[in-house]
């Protein structure tokens, strides 16, 4: 009788040990899968960061070019306004000179 109880205890421990080993294998497999998933996500993230960095660099270049263009246009408009003002001043001076000549006749 005591031998059968001992046998049951031994068998129970053997089954628990087997289950523990299977659980350990399962956990190790899951850890491996998680490591692969993490590495895949990390790689994907790095690729996304590189793409976005390039996009930011292109946008900065476009912004600088737009600023250069805008400054060039502003300079052109300023020069054009200056020329128009000079022409207007010249016309007014010419008209004034003509009026003075008429008055002196």
Question: What's the structural blueprint in terms of helices and strands?
Answer:
Blueprint: H1 2-104
Question: What does this entry show, briefly?
Answer:
With 105 residues, this protein is mainly α.
Provide structural commentary.
The longest helix has 103 residues. Helix content is 98%, strand content 0%. It is an all-alpha fold. It has one helix and no strands.
- Low-pLDDT stretches: none
Number of helices: 1
**Largest sheet, described in full?**
none
Order of helices and strands: H
Beta strand %: under 5%
Radius of gyration: 44 Å
Structural class: mainly alpha
Distance between the termini: 152 Å
- How much helix is in the residues? over 70%
Kindly report the average pLDDT value.
86
DSSP E strands, number: 0
What general form does the structure show? rod-shaped
